[in-house]
Amino acid sequence: MIFWTQEKIDELTRLYPTTNNADLARRLKTTQQSVEMKGFRLGLKKISGILPRNANDDVKTENRPIFQPLKPAALPDFIAERIASFRAIPSLRK
Predict the structure, then answer these.
(1) Number of compact structural domains in the chain
(2) What is the pLDDT of residues 27-68, one digit of tens each?
(3) Three-class SS of residue 29?
């Protein structure tokens, strides 16, 4: 359990609007999630347009696919063998 001292709360309150949560967590020797939750509970807000809320928010995802489909050559041999064994079962053939 992480205990917040008054000194840590004061520093969080002072730095939260202009510092990303990952940097705050390192500085306060706590987790990023703890910083986010404490900031939420205290009603702290980030100054919009200055920096991302989290370290990962600056990564643009709108043009990236959700997942990359596997190419058949990328399958390990044991998976390819398993698929072939299922295809050998008459009720599972297409």
Answers:
(1) 1
(2) 999 999 999 999 999 999 988 766 555 555 544 445 555 555
(3) coil
